[in-house]
Amino acid sequence: MMDLFKFFSKDNGTSKKVAKERLKLVLVHDRTNCSPRFLEMLKEDIIKVISDYVEIDEVGLEIKLTTTKRDFDEQSVPALVANIPIKKMKERSR
Fold it and tell me: What's the pLDDT score for residue 7?
């Protein structure tokens, strides 16, 4: 009977997962001493540099701080992850 309630519940554990991810994000930001404003400035700078080479979809652009494990010692460290949709390559002459 209890499984039937779980089946029809709206949550299905997703709010727990979302809360866990938000907590991880808060901890990463806290440990790296990275404010939301700093992350936004970093995003703007990345857009400026990459835009010299490619046309990007700024609406779909996502940059976030997360954690990853280093290969050599498996220690968790902060990581900057960027998902940058490219519309097209720009021709450059230098």
Answer: 44
